[in-house]
């Protein structure tokens, strides 16, 4: 937690991050099994809509190459899990957990995952924001 001081009152101001739901786009902006990129604060996020109507949000930055390309990956399933394959080196990630399911001979790395929801046709992500 970071505390700042209000110069006028010399009282500490709480600047700790809080978790809240942030609107990102309309559900109609997403196509089934096609990725879309969004910038939320400083985070590049890849959004995916599955055939089941579930929205998944993971980091758009490939942890192997550092390129912001995950939203351009190939969507599929593996053992019932929705997946995306990176267009760079073809590692496959579970969209629910961000876990690498096929590291293509490299050490397994994960994608960051954000909880996603749909409310009234708007896609929301649960994110930390500074108060």
UniProtKB/TrEMBL annotation:
GO BP, sorted A to Z: nitrate assimilation
Domain Rieske residues, every copy: 22-125
PROSITE patterns documented for this protein: NIRD (PS51300), RIESKE (PS51296)
Pfam families for this protein: Rieske_2
Highest taxon above the source species: Bacteria
GO molecular function: 2 iron, 2 sulfur cluster binding; metal ion binding; monooxygenase activity; nitrite reductase [NAD(P)H] activity; oxidoreductase activity, acting on paired donors, with incorporation or reduction of molecular oxygen
Entry keywords, A to Z: 2Fe-2S, Iron, Iron-sulfur, Metal-binding, Nitrate assimilation, Oxidoreductase
NCBIfam families according to UniProt: nirD_assim_sml (TIGR02378)
Protein name: Nitrite reductase small subunit NirD
